[in-house]
Amino acid sequence: MKTLLGVLMLFITLSTTAQTNFTEANAKQLVATFFEGFHKGDTVLMRSVLAKELTLQTATTDGRGIPQLTEGSLSQLLTAIANRPANQKWDEKLLEYQISVDGNLAHVWTPYQFWVNGNFSHCGANAFTIAKLKEGWKIIHLIDSRRKENCNL
Fold first, then answer.
1. How crowded is the C-beta side of 146, counted as CA atoms within 13 Å?
2. Average pLDDT in the 113-119 region?
3. Per the structure, how many domains does the chain have?
4. DSSP 22
């Protein structure tokens, strides 16, 4: 009986541990869910993977060659997605994923090309920081770069 109880406890422990491990595949799926909502214009789906206190930034260079870092907000992002004209198709093509996970923190780097109605607009990279919160795993920080040159089309 003690052996059976011991084996049962071992399986419960292993099962619980397996359910709490956040993997690279989980991180990739979270980002994929974000972009599924982005492409469909589904802000509810996007919000499901975003922290309420999301930090949103863009790193660019202005026309004079001066680096710029601009801050955005979750409400600005969701409003832009919700108000996108129906005749405008946005397609952010992710070129690869580089993912790191450590405990309650993950980072996903995704170089991309951005297309509007089939026409190239710009390229860059997204950097997603994901953390385990009380509500579950959420994107807490998103910063992207944007440029029109050296895009390897």
1. 17
2. 96
3. 1
4. -
